[in-house]
Specification:
alpha/beta, TIM Barrel, Rossmann fold, 2 domains, 6-stranded parallel beta sheet, 6-stranded mixed beta sheet, 21 helices, 33% helix, 11% strand, binds alpha-D-glucopyranose
Length: 618
């Protein structure tokens, strides 16, 4: 009589189903489940033959054409190959949807985390997590490499904007909200998405100058680095000259007490909220790469705190442990890593791990523990019963989600200076001069991790710009858009919109956070033409503005508001109030970076933000 295996019984607990399925797997199939491959590197037939457990798109890993339908088709093909494997174990596909389903053209792009921190609105963040999950599910993607629970100490770090705040408690609160939003009411629900809380641990507490990500003496070699070459950065040398890869993936030199008091709580809060995946950090602590840190990965996280989900590596992070691949693989798997984001040469990885088990360097019990964790999560997500969703594609970038993104953009803007209560602009304002190309540029307002890994200026995706919003909100005010301020017409008020060039990860590490000479020159040209000067900044972190600030009548930090920056028009013209509060300290000078370098008071402390009543609140 055909005995239906226990793992097929959807009424049994996920852990029980996983244990049963595990007992049927060969070593090759177990290692297949522990292997995550980048989607451009996989041989489709290997998904079936090798029982590959996971695939991913790295930043910008998009199908051609980059449409929601093409994404759904691509994921569907991969999943069909996985279901055709000997035991038909569905795969988990992961992406970095760090501010919406941001790789997909036409997806809703929400503010980056630094802006969400300024809203202090956990319910808003939960709704954003839910909307993001729905857009992910519409493409059959059920794993999101988010939220980052980084607590940036040195804002020269190119990933500062991925952090909600420099306040650990606020990070915990918003991370829990996002995790709940992604998961929804039931992790087995059709639009439930698995969060990946990252990067464990203290990724944002590294010391400037300690990153070994690139060899500065051999910059030419960087150009052929399989990952960095994907950055499509035409001039890596220029990026390095600005400070790229000085601190990202560096060494965290804090003591264990600080690590536990400041950086651990957001993970514990997220686990309590049901998070079943954590991504390990590239950075190092205690003399070891985090991917080799058995004490923290196994003894503390899995032992002391009972984390029952699985740990995934970061991209090619295992290979950074040691020049010898076997040493790296053995060290990281024995340290407690469960799934390896290879991402390219998966045959080498699988052969190396197989040999390590056969030679006894990695005990089978460690392999079984890793696969049990991975399978338990797949059962908990109902992937065996429902490997495909029926979520309508037209929810991608839908009006409801865009309205939510606009609401978030409005609540994330922080009013830092407002001489004479210049803001909100009165409806009777005769002329408003708007300068700065970022005023009308989707790419600048979205920042990194948008369509491509680094993001880019220009009309990179659908959305609405700040200028569009100003024109919409300015009823009787004449809006003069002169991006370079080359004309001479005067205006009662000038609004200069500045932005950082988009960047991601260590490519955004910077020696210097002052405004550029070109930005200062533009400010000067506009200053000469107007009675009152307002500056609005799109940036992934506080910049040093202490000197020029004296010339500004008002100043707004808008962070990276995403695809719906037009919503800021309503705040500028008083239909919505300014409510944002800084979630980072704003330093006076570069000497005050990292936090605590000097006992100088910040220009504005965390928590600061001027409010304006909504003149026309409905
Ligand atoms: C990157 C990032 C990580 C991301 C992963 C996959 O290098 O460090 O945050 O989730 O690779 O793109």
């Amino acid at each position: 009589m055909k005995t239906d295996h226990a793992y097929k019984n959807a009424n049994l607990p996920p852990a029980e189903r996983a244990a049963d399925l595990l007992s049927h797997l060969t070593l090759a199939e177990k290692i297949g489940q522990m292997t995550q491959v980048e989607k451009n590197s996989i041989d489709l037939e290997d998904i079936t033959k090798l029982g590959i457990g996971s695939l991913l798109s790295g930043g910008g890993g998009v199908p051609e054409p980059n449409t929601a339908a093409a994404w759904r088709k691509m994921i569907g093909e991969f999943q069909q190959k996985a279901l055709a494997s000997r035991l038909g174990i569905p795969l988990l596909y992961g992406v970095d949807a760090v501010h919406g389903h941001n790789n997909v053209h036409g997806a809703t792009i929400f503010p980056h985390n630094i802006g969400l921190g300024a809203t202090r609105n956990a319910d808003l963040v939960r709704r954003i997590g839910r909307a993001t999950a729905v857009e992910l599910a519409a493409t059959d993607i059920r794993w999101d490499f988010a939220p980052a629970v980084s607590i940036p100490q040195d804002i020269r770090w190119g990933r500062s904007y991925e952090g909600y705040s420099q306040d650990s408690k606020l990070v915990s609160e918003l991370a829990v909200a996002y995790v709940q939003g992604l998961q929804g009411e039931d992790l087995a629900g059709e639009t439930a998405v698995l969060p990946s809380v990252k990067h464990f641990i203290a990724d944002a507490a590294t010391t400037w100058g300690t990153s070994k990500r690139i060899n500065r003496e051999e910059l030419a070699a960087v150009a052929v680095d399989e990952t960095l070459a994907n950055a499509h950065v035409s001039d890596m040398q220029r990026a390095v000259a600005l400070g790229a890869w000085q601190i990202d993936q560096g060494v965290t030199e804090i003591d264990e007490a600080t690590l536990r008091a400041v950086h651990l709580p957001p993970y514990l809060a997220a686990i309590k909220a049901g998070a079943l995946n954590i991504m390990v950090s590239y950075s190092s602590w205690g003399g070891l790469r985090m991917h080799a840190q058995k004490y923290l990965l196994t003894d503390v996280l899995k032992g002391e705190y009972g984390f029952s989900g699985f740990l995934v590596s970061d991209w090619e992070a295992v290979q950074q442990i040691d020049p010898d691949l076997k040493t790296s693989v053995v060290t990281s798997i024995n340290a407690g890593l469960d799934m390896v984001m290879v991402p390219f040469h998966y045959h080498d990885f699988m052969a190396t791990l197989t040999e390590a088990v056969e030679s006894g360097d990695v005990p089978m019990s460690r392999i079984d523990d890793a696969v049990q964790r991975i399978l338990m999560v797949k059962f908990a997500m109902g992937l065996f019963e429902r490997p495909f969703t029926q979520t309508p594609l037209d929810l991608m970038g839908c009006a409801e989600h865009r309205a939510l993104a606009g609401e978030a953009a409005q609540q994330s803007a922080v009013l830092l200076k407002n001489e004479g209560n210049l803001l909100p602009f009165p409806k009777t304002l005769p002329r408003l001069l708007v300068a700065g190309t970022p005023a009308d540029d989707i790419g600048y307002q979205c920042g990194g991790w948008t369509i491509s890994w680094m993001g880019a200026p220009g009309p990179i995706t659908k959305g609405s710009t700040l200028l569009e919003g100003i024109r919409e909100a300015a009823e009787d005010t004449a809006v003069i858009y002169d991006p370079a301020s080359e004309q001479t017409t005067r205006a009662e008020v000038g609004l200069v919109v500045l932005a950082e060039e988009p960047y991601a990860e260590g490519m955004g590490d910077r020696y210097d956070l002052h405004l550029t000479p070109e930005q200062l020159a533009l400010l000067e040209r506009v200053r000469q033409r107007v009675d009152k000067l307002v500056v609005l900044l799109f940036s992934g972190r506080p910049l040093i503005v202490t000197e020029p600030l004296a010339e500004w009548d008002a100043f707004i930090a808008a962070w990276l508001p995403g695809s719906e920056a037009s919503a800021l028009g309503e705040v500028l013209f008083g239909e919505r109030p300014f409510t944002g509060k800084l979630s980072f300290h704003w330093p006076r000078s570069m000497n005050d970076i990292p936090l605590g370098s000097t006992d100088a008071e910040p220009l504005w402390p965390l928590g600061f933000g001027l409010s304006t009543a909504a003149a026309f609140a409905d």
